[in-house]
Amino acid sequence: QVQQTLAGLKKSYNLQKTEQLAQLNQAKQLLDHSQMAYNLMENRMENAKREVARFRDAFNEGIVSEIQLVDREDMAQERQRLYEQTRSDLEQAKLRLTEQESTYERTLRQTEAEIEQAQLRLREQEKSYQGLVEAGKLALLRSEENFKNMEAEISRLEADIAQNKTQIEGLKFQLSQRVIKSPVNGTIFDFPIPGAGSVVQPGMMVAEIAPENSSLSLKAQMTTPESGSLKTGLPVKLKFDAYPYQDYGVLPGEIISISPTTEEVDTPQGPIAAYTLKITLKKDCIDSGNECIPLRPGDTASAEVIVRRRRIIDLIVDPFKQLQKGGIGL
Q: Which DSSP category does 233 fall into?
C-alpha cells in the first residue's frame, strides 16, 4: 500500500508540476498581454490629452465649437478610464503571477516532502513487515466488529423508520378527521364560524353553500308577531338592496319552507324571535332595460310576503257592511 501511495505521490507530483507550470505560463502570458494593453492605453490617453489641449486652444481662438471640444474631453475621459482599468488589470496580472509562482514553489516543496515521507514510511514498513501483518489482522477484526455494529444500527434504523411510518399514517388519519369537505361544488354564502380557534360542536353548521349551477333561493327571517298567516306556497315580492326597486322593480318568489322553531335575531330594537324562511326565486336575474342582470349568491334583499288577496270591491263594501252590522246592533 505504501508503494502504491509512493507511486501515486510521484505521479501526482508530475501532474501538479505540469499543471502549475501551465498556470504559471498562463499568468506570464496574461501579464505580457496586460502590459501591452497598458502601454497602448497609456499612449492613447496621452494622445487624447494632447488632442484636448489642441482643441481647447482652437476653441479659445474660435476655430472649433464647444461641442467638438466637449467631445474630445469626453473621449479623453473615456481613455483615462480605460487606462485606469488596464493599469488595474496589469496590477492584478502581476499579483496573479506572484501567487502562481508562490503556489508552484509551495506545491513542489509540499509534494517533495510528502514523497520523502512516503519513502521513509516504506523503508520503515519493510523493516517491520511482521508487525504490519499483525496490525492488519487486528484491523480486520476491528472491521468485522464495525460491520456487525453497522448491521445492528441498520436494523435499529429500519425499526425507527417503520415506527415513523406508523406515526405518519396516524397523523394523516388525525388530519383527515380535522378537514371538512363539501359534498358539492359551489359558493359559500354563510359562514357562521367566528374565526380561527373557534370550537365546533357535533352537528353544528360550519358553512352554507349554494351548489354550482343550482337555482338561487333566499333565506329570510320573519318575526313571530307577523308570522300568523305564514305557510309554504305563499307568493313573495323581493326587493334587492343592490338594485333599487324604484328603478328595477321587484322580483317574484315563493315560500318553499318555514323553520319549525324560531331563533333569536339581533335587531336595532334588540333581540327578537323570528322564523327562518326559504324563498325560491322565479328567475335568477333582474330586468334592466334590454338585459337581465344575473343575481349572485350573497346578494341581500327584503321580502314582502303576500298573505292573502282581496277584490277592490270588497275593500269598498266591507266598511259599509261593518257599519250596517254596528247599526243593527244598536
A: T
Looking at the domain assignment, is residue 45 inside a domain? Answer: yes
Per the structure, the count of domains in the chain is 2
Task: Say yes or no: 227 and 135 in one domain.
Answer: no
- Mean predicted lDDT score pLDDT of the chain: 77
Query: Dihedral sign, CA of 274, 184, 188, 176?
Result: positive
Cβ burial of 55 (10 Å; 0-12, 13-18, 19+) is buried
- Among 7-11, 31-35, 188-192, 315-319, which stretch is predicted with the lowest mean pLDDT? 315-319
d(CA 153, CA 37): 64
Is 180 domain-assigned? no
Please tell me whether the overall predicted TM-score, pTM, comes out greater than 0.85 for this model.
no
The DSSP letter of residue 297 is T
Are 38 and 93 in contact by the 8 Å Cβ rule? The answer is: no
Show the domain range for 242.
216-307
Q: Is 120 helix (H, G, I), strand (E, B) or coil?
A: helix
Residue with grid cell 465649437, as numbered in its chain: 65
